[in-house]
Amino acid sequence: MEDRISARAVLDTSALLSSEKRALLFFAQVGLYTIVWSNYIIWELSRKMAGMGWAKETARSYIEALSDIAEWCDYRQITGGSYEEWLTDPDDHPIMATAIAGQADFIVTWNVKDFPPKRRFAGTTIITPDAFLTDLSRSARGS
């Protein structure tokens, strides 16, 4: 794991809606890493929460809580390059662009079909939420 203060991670919606979401947010709140996100991730998260039947106020509160601890970046500033050979789902391109624009060390995702764990692209490592939390826990203990 990178130095715990400088580690930056994009949490995609599969991580933000997973059973690990509380732990992921806690570790960000206590400064073990920085969450990086974008308007695209906020839009996708809102859409998926609505599809899952989240109450509007609950969804809004969750997004506001994330906004308080996450660092926003403009994924649209990444205009060059092509992800087609590596990312087969065009809906994942803005996730990768967010990671590149936000200089993220990690993309934390359960979408292992489209983002194979332990792969690296443009300096960003793909990792599952449970593996990321394990690494953060080790970092917190000084291991």
Description:
- With 143 residues, the chain is of the alpha/beta class.
- The protein has one domain: Rossmann fold (3-Layer(aba) Sandwich), CATH 3.40.50.1010.
- The protein is built from 6 helices and 6 strands.
- The longest helix has 14 residues, at 56-69.
- The model has no long low-confidence stretch (mean pLDDT 88).
Please summarize what this structure is.
With 143 residues, this protein is α/β, with parallel strands linked by helices.
What is the first-to-last residue Cα distance? Answer: 10 Å
> What CATH architecture label applies?
3-Layer(aba) Sandwich
Structural class: alpha/beta
Number of domains: 1
Biggest sheet details: 6 strands, mixed
Helix content: 40-55%
CATH level 3 topology? Rossmann fold
Radius of gyration: 14 Å
The count of DSSP E runs of length 2 or more, i.e. the number of strands, is 6
Mean pLDDT, to the nearest integer, reads 88
Topology:
Layout: E1 8-11, H1 13-16, H2 21-29, E2 34-37, H3 39-51, H4 56-69, E3 70-72, H5 93-101, E4 106-108, E5 120-121, E6 124-127, H6 129-141
Parallel strand pairs: 1-2, 1-4, 2-3, 4-6
Antiparallel strand pairs: 5-6
What key phrases describe this protein's structure?
143 residues; 43% helix; Rossmann fold; 6 strands; globular; 6 helices
